[in-house]
């Protein structure tokens, strides 16, 4: 809330009409004679005296850690001194009318806004009084009666002032609390409680319909975790601005969860539901500019309507949440609520719970997709791809559980299991005379966990397998969100003798310029380009230039998603190092991979 608005509201609310202040002054026995005495001593408040007072005040506030931060920059400190000076002159002017009151309340409100609590400035009143007393003593050196009256006037004046200061402060504080209870601190938008109240009032008003759109920012959690909460807050503030821009066409725009905004439209709304969704999503089309580099986030929208989908406020919110969850899961832009969803979502939520148990129950397994040298066709190793042998649902591909897992700490035990099992498998194959390397996939979150490299080191020491036969694949996206921390973790992993590969290259924002400083050994060109390179000249060009650039940086290249002979031939022509894809082999259970290896290496 702006200070100006707050002052006006508070003056109204405290009911501080000028007459009211005069009444208080009368109660304090502060009258015309006091005013006259004060006016007499006022000329003695010279620039020097006041400067001294302001300097003391400044030193006082600077000497406590609670208040020193409030003073801020030298510029702000100087301004603060100026305020103290003007104020001192005003209070001693013997006129406690409207102008003085406004200023007094404004100061109280400002103190509350900047967090200067009364306990830190009430102690300055004795100092202030001393300045006035000194002036009174000097002015009435030969007139003891007037001197005593002048000193009494000073005390009364300080009392009036302190009472107004406290009243304004606490009133502003109360208002701020009220505001905070209904508004979000980071974005200044109304919060979830406000949303609930608004929905209640719209429903009570018997609006024909109330559309609730919940807008989830895609990838926000990754940004927040990798770039830190400050950048996360910046993203939220920028996103809030974009949401605010549509606010005048909606009944309410609010922030209702860490990365979720809400838009409410009742029957007076101009755009149709579809139009509103487009407006919302358009706002997220543009990249977010963060400290010089831009991040594209995008958003998903879940929608539910009163009375079509829900007949009360809580159900409406819950169903819009379910629709949003569904939009995120399907990676689509917008999903309206449908009753069918309610039957699915508890099941999805329980997946995370079940997965925790699945690790201990031995339901996870790695399948191995062969990798071959493009030039000769000889086997190079495999990428280990996770599968979950679910007791009821059968063999589940990672796409059904890894994306949720990567958003939570559950990815830590999952990745730890993958590391250990891959090393165990390498050890077994080593005994059977099967060579080559195994690449495992790790999540962005693993790279942010400073304990992860150490955990890998321990697994390597325990497993006894040769670390140079292990490789980690991390997506380009996972590195780009916090390049520095990712690079640190990757360097520590590399120091163990493990190789590093950038997965899904070409789909994120990474440029080779960033990658050249990263501890990497390999790029994997994403399958969306490779799969269609035989048919799309554009995709072929992307694959070719990626290979060229990677080689110039000393990185080897694996093409993933090779689905036909033609692509493999093209890759050979482009000088690609390794290939992986259904045309060569699908991901295979460990036993089948061993047979494939024997055959390929001419020993089967
Ligand atoms: P990815 O690492 O990019 O793995 C390649 C995916 O493409 C695999 O799907 C693979 O089966 C599939 N693929 C391979 N060749 C072809 C092809 O010729 N054509 C087509 N259309 N697809 C092909 P999968 O096994 O379903 O894995 C999907 C993603 O799940 C992986 O993408 C990876 O990001 C993630 N993932 C798999 N295992 C793990 C794991 O152990 N940990 C983590 N954190 N993520 C994993
Ligand atoms: Mg991979
Ligand atoms: Mg990939």
The CATH fourth-level homologous superfamily of the largest domain: EAL domain
- CATH first level of the largest domain: which class? Alpha Beta
Strand order of the largest sheet: 8-9-11-12-13-14-15-16
| Global shape | elongated
For the record, the CATH architecture of the largest domain stands as: Alpha-Beta Barrel
- Fraction of helical residues: 55-70%
Strand-residue proportion = 15-25%
| Spans where pLDDT lies below 50 across 5 or more residues | none
Account of the 3D structure:
The protein has 604 residues and is α/β, with parallel strands linked by helices. The chain has three domains: 2-182, Globin-like (Orthogonal Bundle), CATH 1.10.490; 192-337, Alpha-Beta Plaits; 348-600, Alpha-Beta Barrel (TIM Barrel). It contains 27 helices and 17 strands. The strands form three sheets. Strands 8-9-11-12-13-14-15-16 form an eight-stranded mixed barrel, surrounded by four helices. Strands 2-3-1-6-7 form a five-stranded mixed beta sheet, with helices on both faces. Strand 6 (299-306), helix 15 and strand 7 (334-336) form a beta-alpha-beta unit. Helix 3 (32-41) crosses helix 10 (144-182) and helix 20 runs parallel beside helix 22 (483-495). The longest helix is centred in the first third of the chain and has 39 residues, at 144-182. One magnesium ion binds at residues 383, 441, 473, 503.
């Amino acid at each position: 809330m702006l200070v100006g608005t707050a002052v006006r509201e508070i003056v109204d609310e405290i009911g501080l009409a000028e007459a009211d202040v005069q009444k208080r002054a009368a109660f304090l026995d502060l009258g015309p004679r006091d005013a006259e005495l004060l006016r007499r001593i006022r000329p003695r408040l010279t620039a020097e005296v006041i400067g001294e007072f302001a300097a003391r005040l400044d030193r006082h506030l600077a000497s406590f850690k609670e208040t020193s931060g409030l003073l801020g920059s030298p510029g702000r400190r100087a301004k603060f001194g100026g305020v103290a000076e003007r104020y001192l002159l005003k209070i001693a002017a013997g006129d406690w009318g409207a102008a003085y009151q406004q200023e007094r309340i404004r100061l109280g409100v400002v103190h509350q806004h900047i967090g200067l609590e009364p306990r830190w400035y009430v102690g300055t009143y004795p100092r202030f009084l001393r300045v006035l007393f000194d002036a009174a003593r000097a002015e009435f050196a030969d007139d003891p009666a007037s001197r005593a009256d002048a000193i009494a006037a000073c005390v009364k004046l300080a009392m009036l002032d302190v009472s107004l200061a406290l009243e304004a402060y606490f009133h502003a504080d109360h208002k701020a609390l009220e505001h905070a209870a209904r508004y979000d601190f980071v974005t200044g938008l109304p919060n979830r409680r406000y949303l609930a109240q608004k929905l209640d009032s719209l429903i009570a008003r018997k609006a024909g319909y109330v559309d609730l759109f919940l807008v989830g920012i895609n990838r926000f959690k990754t940004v927040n975790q990798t770039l830190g909460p400050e950048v996360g807050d910046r993203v939220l503030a920028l996103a809030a601005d974009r949401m605010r821009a549509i606010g005048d066409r909606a009944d309410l725009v609010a922030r209702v969860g860490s990365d979720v905004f809400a838009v409410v439209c009742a029957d007076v709304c101009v755009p149709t539901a579809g139009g509103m969704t487009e407006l919302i999503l358009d706002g997220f089309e543009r990249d977010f500019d963060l400290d010089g580099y831009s991040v594209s986030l995008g958003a998903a929208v879940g929608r539910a309507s009163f009375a079509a989908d829900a007949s009360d406020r809580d159900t409406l919110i819950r169903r819009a949440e379910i629709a949003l969850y569904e939009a995120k899961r399907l990676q689509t832009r917008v999903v309206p609520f449908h009753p069918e969803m309610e039957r699915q979502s508890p099941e999805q939520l329980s997946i995370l719970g079940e997965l925790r148990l699945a690790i201990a129950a031995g339901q996870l397994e790695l399948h191995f997709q062969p990798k071959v040298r493009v030039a000769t066709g000889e086997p190079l190793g495999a990428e280990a791809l996770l599968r979950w042998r679910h007791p009821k649902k059968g063999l589940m591909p990672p796409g059904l559980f890894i994306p949720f897992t990567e958003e939570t700490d559950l990815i830590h035990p999952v990745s730890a299991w993958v590391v250990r099992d891959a090393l165990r498998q390498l050890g077994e194959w080593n005994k059977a005379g099967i060579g080559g390397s195994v690449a495992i996939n790790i999540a962005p979150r693993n790279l942010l966990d400073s304990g992860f490299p150490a955990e890998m080191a321990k697994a390597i020491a325990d497993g006894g397998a040769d670390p140079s036969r292990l490789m980690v694949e991390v997506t380009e996206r996972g590195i780009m969100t916090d390049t520095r921390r990712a690079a640190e973790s990757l360097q520590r992993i590399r120091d163990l003798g493990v190789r590093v590969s950038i997965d899904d290259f070409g789909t994120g924002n990474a440029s080779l310029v960033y990658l050249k400083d990263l501890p990497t050994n390999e790029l994997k060109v994403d399958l969306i380009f490779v799969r269609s390179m035989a048919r799309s000249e554009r995709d072929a060009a992307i694959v070719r230039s990626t290979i060229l650039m990677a080689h110039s940086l000393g990185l080897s290249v694996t093409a993933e998603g090779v689905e036909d002979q033609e692509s493999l031939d093209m890759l050979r022509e482009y000088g690609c190092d390794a290939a992986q894809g259904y045309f060569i082999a699908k991901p295979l259970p460990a036993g089948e991979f061993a047979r494939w290896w024997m055959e390929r290496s001419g020993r089967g």
